[in-house]
């Protein structure tokens, strides 16, 4: 059992991360501007952009591990300069507070969007499935902030890797448990609508991960961080694509620029590989859309 801080613990992803860590017996504190009823954690309200206030809370808690999720989490939610400034400032603030408080581990949430898909100037993958060795090519303030964050982590490994373990994960499109039953997703539509209209899912290259699986990944990393190369980056996604047709057909229909690499995928295989997470941490997604989607008369066509 460890004392763990989760920043952004009241968020869409944060609540499942908090639940997974609490279920493992960890003593979890969520640091967030918002509070959430029923979260199995102590909740402290703090603006993490305030470095002084953040450091004071960290010194008080003295966490063994820190999971940094708080961010402007949606591309385009704010103008690019604001998203970049806020997301990078949050990383600096939480990194310094973690170092000062003597934390041993720090895991940060990046995003698959660092790949740069849907760039207005065109994008095509070097190969499929995308893995952590594929070059990044951010084209908006959100993606650029995540690439900067990943570089800050590599910098921190060089400076502090002797005393602290760092990791980065790129969660695919997070689907919370209630969203399988029809609650609106981050974009406002339902999962069933996302499947019946593949253009909606093509925006994220048909990727997804159940929030409970993302939580289980974080718990696995916290458990085994010292056993994997310091600063490792992980894609965290389901092994299948969030669409009814086979993935190559969906790519040819909705992502023609990527069609040249479509044949490198078989069946419903995801465009993203999470093989590294399985090899290094023994993690794989357990909740797949064909099992989880709650079938109603309206969604009967979306059962694959
Ligand atoms: N949801 C996804 O599909 C997805 C996919 C890839 C990456 N991510 C990344 O995962 C992380 C979590 O995403 P999410 O979907 O849960 O986002 P979210 O917006 O639901 O949650 C973010 C939380 O951070 C808090 N927060 C933001 N700024 C803060 C500040 N200055 N001080 C204190 N708290 C602050 C918010 O109050 C919120 O509760 C983000 O870093 C996001 O970029 C999410």
Q: How would you state the average pLDDT, rounded?
A: 96
Q: How many strands in all? A: 9
Q: Biggest β-sheet, characterized?
A: 7 strands, parallel
State the domain count: 1
Query: Hey, roughly how much beta strand do the residues contain?
Result: 5-15%
Low-confidence stretches: none
Strand order of the largest sheet: 3-2-1-4-5-6-9
CATH architecture: 3-Layer(aba) Sandwich
Shape descriptor: globular
Write down the Rg. 19 Å
CATH topology: Rossmann fold
* Structure class: alpha/beta
Count helical runs.
Answer: 12
Bound molecules: nicotinamide-adenine-dinucleotide
CATH superfamily: NAD(P)-binding Rossmann-like Domain
Q: What pattern of helices and strands is seen along the backbone?
A: EHEEHEHEHEEHHHEHEHHHH
Distance between the termini: 41 Å
General description of the model:
There is one protein chain. The chain has helices at 14-23, 51-61, 80-100, 141-160, 177-180, 191-196, 198-202, 211-224, 247-254, 259-262, 275-281, 289-292, and strands spanning 3-7, 27-32, 42-45, 65-68, 105-109, 165-171, 174-175, 209-210, 232-236. By secondary structure, the protein is α/β, with parallel strands linked by helices. It has twelve helices and nine strands. The model has no long low-confidence stretch (mean pLDDT 96). The chain has a single domain, classed as NAD(P)-binding Rossmann-like Domain (Rossmann fold, 3-Layer(aba) Sandwich). The strands form two sheets. The chain has a seven-stranded parallel beta sheet, with helices on both faces. A two-stranded parallel sheet has the order 7-8. Helix 1 (14-23) packs across helix 8 and helix 3 packs parallel to helix 4. It binds nicotinamide-adenine-dinucleotide. Nicotinamide-adenine-dinucleotide binds at residues 8, 10-14, 32-34, 47-49, 69-71, 73, 90, 109, 111, 171, 173-174, 186. The site of nicotinamide-adenine-dinucleotide has 23 residues, from loops.
